[in-house]
Amino acid sequence: MSDEAVITVRADGPYLVKGVKLVNHEGKEIPAPESFALCRCGQSSNKPFCDGTHRKVGFQHAVHL
Prior knowledge:
Layout: E1 6-9, E2 15-18, E3 35-38, H1 53-57
Antiparallel strand pairs: 1-2, 2-3
């Protein structure tokens, strides 16, 4: 595990996550590699991970202030 956690928001895509441990609502660790992508569109068939469906459904990110 890295000393620095980084979450990058991709325009019209997933959250790219590096250097964190992912746990479920019960506090149990979800197996994940050092770097992974989390679904942001809500349409992935592999939640919480991104499966690329955002491209098929035309997901667009919210306007950033």
